[in-house]
Amino acid sequence: MKIAEFEVETWMTDHENHCRYNLTETCVSSLSLNDLQKYVQEDISKTIMSMTLDYGPIVGSSRLKQAILSLYETGTVENITIAHGAINANELVMISLLEPGDHIVSLFPSYQQMYDFPKSLGCEVSLIHLSEEKKWMPTIEDFKQCMRNNTKMICLNSPNNPTGTTLPLSFMKELITLAKDFDCYILCDEIYRGVNTITQTMSPSFSDYYEKAIVTQSLSKVFSFPGLRLGWIKGSKEVVHTIDMRRDYHIISSGPMDDYLACLVLENKEHIIKRSLYICDESKKILKSWLEQEHLVSCVIPDEGTVCFLKYEVDMPSIEFCEKLQAETGIFFVPGSAFGVENHLRFGLTHLNEIKEGLPLFSQWLRQFDK
Amino acid sequence: MKIAEFEVETWMTDHENHCRYNLTETCVSSLSLNDLQKYVQEDISKTIMSMTLDYGPIVGSSRLKQAILSLYETGTVENITIAHGAINANELVMISLLEPGDHIVSLFPSYQQMYDFPKSLGCEVSLIHLSEEKKWMPTIEDFKQCMRNNTKMICLNSPNNPTGTTLPLSFMKELITLAKDFDCYILCDEIYRGVNTITQTMSPSFSDYYEKAIVTQSLSKVFSFPGLRLGWIKGSKEVVHTIDMRRDYHIISSGPMDDYLACLVLENKEHIIKRSLYICDESKKILKSWLEQEHLVSCVIPDEGTVCFLKYEVDMPSIEFCEKLQAETGIFFVPGSAFGVENHLRFGLTHLNEIKEGLPLFSQWLRQFDK
């Protein structure tokens, strides 16, 4: 099945291992099991060394599902299933529910999987183009104009990658009203949920407000454990059952070790999220004060998530810009072109020391473009 | 995308946790990391506790790919990519290379993913029906009759699940000649490769004999580590590149911990395979002598793999048979109907003690059907 190259992922794979200042990373500085041990009474090492590594709980343990439910207002274990990261969670939702000829509505820019994966399944896709002038926010009118009788799913990513924009609750409710009129699913990839530096709480989840909402998340971003490759899906009991049936063709299980470790991460989430909030908050402060003195770069700084989208006033395509910058300074960005938007760079609020050292160096490098 | 229920997997999920004698398990008794530590000099626990759990090597580490290459006669690291188990490896191959309208040829019975996954992608599927009288072996004539101008892929599972049949090298070579005439891929799920109790060596891999062969395998069966969820694909450099591009939409990476542990398993494979050979060999001896005295059951015992397919001479559908047997004795089988073949049971050669105790109990239970 033909599909467009996943530009942000291939760029990351090709460039991330050769950089000195990673200013584009989306995961809050990853932790180790020794870091996790500090919050946990039981001996992690002893448990995982003695565990029989059979397939483990096929659709995830009840303990893990209970831990996941603590992130939401509503739901039971029957509303949750486990996946190999949020990427696989999104895949499972779309391949289970979409058919060739279905129409879906998505945002642009956003995570490419949300529109190019359904396209590869033979779906028709309408894209709502976001603009920086409107703080990267869509309007309900934008959605109304896209909806059709065969619209099966609205595919979102909130907080959005790369812009960081989070849809406010009032907007979510209006969108749900519209979706109900078309008996349409809302899939929201909520992988960046969890570090709102203004409210200090998690923003609302679509799954708590609409029966036909399906949300995905993982341990990768605010939980700092991307290496566990553990994501999940929350949806209606019927949707979860359909996905569990499909899932046997894709992953079988997550394995008992990752299931157990994910329980420990989520059961100790207050420590981990507190650290992530601190890191993202400090990063935003440094970014804000840097933006005040850097006339060639601007940005809509979001309330939540771990990324935002820098705009640069230099007449150079973003791929060329990023490659030159990385070659000459070791500073690593994902170019806006990987999201279909030129003259932008995805900025990650996750690596505090690299941001502290990297931003002044970036400014120094930018001086060659002053007129 | 509609797909048939994956019958063997849903049966396993629903029944495997409530049994006393698992006589159907396909993985040679799973091991723990403490078991692995016996073969390894370095301190596994120390390494995994201190490892930063970021995404890790995106397409798998070179060390892991080198370890995988030791299972084949040919190839370089560019011929290998990593997946979440063999199930995900098969998915990645098929979703990357097949298009709606393509024709594929597969065997029946065999692993259901091999024919129902491509069908869900819109492919046409021709099935070659295997018969017990011919020792579950297809003929080249069977394949010739199925081939069409739009045949894109021959999808096999050798050694086969559930019959255990392994295609001999002479047959493989004839099939390759036929595939070349149609410029057709051969996908062979070789997950059961590795425990040939006759030759004591691994049977040949399609990937060592044909440029357009793609093979998959994992740590689940003969390597006794299904819980690591680590599989791989070996194919031409071009195919691996296409799959790596697609892979970003499905799993991103396997995570650094599973990558590292998989290296240790494969670097110490001689110990693990020796144990698996012993277990399967002993199991076959017990099964053979049991079959000699059990007149209601017969079986084609295969040379390789960890499963075979028992035929029972009782007039009862296999689902009813298995449920009654499990309820009354705790003996667990997958019914033949999960593979589309009635009056059969999938037998696993993997749990030696359960086989020793379970088979006499099974005979005792069967006496009610004597005429």
TrEMBL record, chains A, B:
Cofactor(s) needed, names only, are:
pyridoxal 5'-phosphate
Q: Which UniProt keywords apply?
A: Aminotransferase, Transferase
Q: So what family is this one in?
A: Belongs to the class-I pyridoxal-phosphate-dependent aminotransferase family.
One Pfam family name is Aminotran_1_2
Q: What is this protein called?
A: Aminotransferase
Which species is this UniProt entry from? Coprobacillus cateniformis
Ligase as a keyword? no
The GO molecular function terms of this record are: pyridoxal phosphate binding; transaminase activity
Q: What is its EC number?
A: 2.6.1.-
